[in-house]
Amino acid sequence: MKMALNQWTTRSWTVAEAVDGCVRHGVEAIGLWRQDVAAQGLAATVDLVGGAGLRVSSLCRGGFLTSSDWEADNRAAIDEAAALRAGCLVLVVGGLPGVVPGEPLGGFSRDLRQARRRVADALGVLAPYARDRGVRLALEPLHPMYCADRAVISTLAQALDLAEPYDPAVLGVVVDTFHLWWDPDVLAQIARAGERIASYQVCDFLHPIPPDVLLARGMMGDGVIDFRPITDAVLAAGYTGDVEVEIFNADLWAADPDAVLAQAKTRFAEHISPHPAETSG
Amino acid sequence: MKMALNQWTTRSWTVAEAVDGCVRHGVEAIGLWRQDVAAQGLAATVDLVGGAGLRVSSLCRGGFLTSSDWEADNRAAIDEAAALRAGCLVLVVGGLPGVVPGEPLGGFSRDLRQARRRVADALGVLAPYARDRGVRLALEPLHPMYCADRAVISTLAQALDLAEPYDPAVLGVVVDTFHLWWDPDVLAQIARAGERIASYQVCDFLHPIPPDVLLARGMMGDGVIDFRPITDAVLAAGYTGDVEVEIFNADLWAADPDAVLAQAKTRFAEHISPHPAETSG
Prior knowledge:
Chains A, B: InterPro entries: IolE/XylAMocC-like (IPR050312), Xyl_isomerase-like_sf (IPR036237), Xyl_isomerase-like_TIM-brl (IPR013022). Chains A, B: Keywords: Isomerase. Chains A, B: GO terms for molecular function: isomerase activity. Two copies of one chain form a homodimer. The first copy, chain A, has 281 residues and is of the alpha/beta class. The first copy, chain A, is 42% helix and 16% strand. Chain A has helices at 15-25, 34-40, 42-52, 70-83, 112-132, 156-163, 177-180, 186-193, 227-236, 250-254, 257-271, 276-279, and strands at residues 2-6, 29-33, 55-63, 89-92, 137-139, 171-176, 197-202, 204-205, 217-218, 242-245. In chain A, α6 (156-163) links the parallel β5 and β6 (171-176). In chain A, α4 (70-83) packs parallel to α5.
């Protein structure tokens, strides 16, 4: 399996620094974040990753389709993903309209079903636009603890139901161990997903959950997830793409990014790569 | 709908104080916690609730069936539920073996599927014991953010699959809005549950989630849940039992319990009871 670095695992690095880090550590693909690409400049980023010979495994992220002003920004995100020849544009679909991550509740809607219909409607607009530009969208189900503020799509089954009307080459799904490990149906849904898996992202789920639940992600091996069955299911489903290490973690963000990337490589080999005994014979 | 007080909503009250509070506020049923019953004395509690004419809507809780020493304590819990003539004994099934709520990870098992098999096996032992004593067990799926440390059962579908081999009068399920509101399948699963619903518990899901995720519960109306569709589904499924207000919340625990119970009654009328327009005609 090919490990990719999601840029926010080494969040203090600029795009240029992260590209350089990948080259130095022998990592062949990178998942980029739009705000960092904008800070570096889109054309400059295209040149950097091209010059380094890196694949862009994903662009993070479009989405927040439940807000009222989702359209222009998502068209821009698709254009950026096209310019970067990104493997996919990750879509975090958004929470209840008006609920803002980290902020107290103000005016908002409790209508969860209506929010989900908004997502379905927006996909109907974005999918043709992405198809015409050769961009693959990737719906990411998020852990249910983010349902109110970040994603009203909480399970892989739900993401696959939404994706079903579309060509898998246009609308795929993200399998992220952090978000899905608890789901009693996850292995069956990964098998169902098959070629629709546009991205496999790995990181661990910490216990206890830290005060900021967004930062409950940990280095593989530091949390509670058994990666073997999930990874085996992703491989059995036919996935041959890059595997992104994506960790939001305050301690890792404060650490030396080179040390974090080196540790990620070690832990990836221990917890994610198929064991020699499993690949032989 | 008949509102019941789950004792931990007014956690500073002893059993005697909570029984008295129910009587003074015109609440006809109470959900009790085993440690508080033990502090009051089981026989004394039986006398108190009997003397007050209260129903015991539930006894909280048995479970933690994934630990190695689950059996004796759960048999004791069933005996206590029988003595109290509780509507059900709530089972919180436990997390990954060795993972302790609130404590750093030590020696533990990442084998989630094995933990779930342990739950199924334990139910096979406990169900006949409960049946013989006239006690109804109630499996409670908990929010997936508690999967590691409190309950490897995270969805109503999963609880119903586990319960299927058993008589609904012996093994039911708990529908708790806090745990299930995010589930895209929850309304269909409530319909499937039908007479297996042994308890309907209500409280809101706060946003942002507070630093201690166990205390993310809030008074109905203070969080993000739309109670109407869930309550309607529970009623349509044929549930006619008590509806417990169960809120773990640091601010409410620090407040005057009488004020909390009074507010719970008001909010219950606003958010849970069918509106007059819905019950008429």
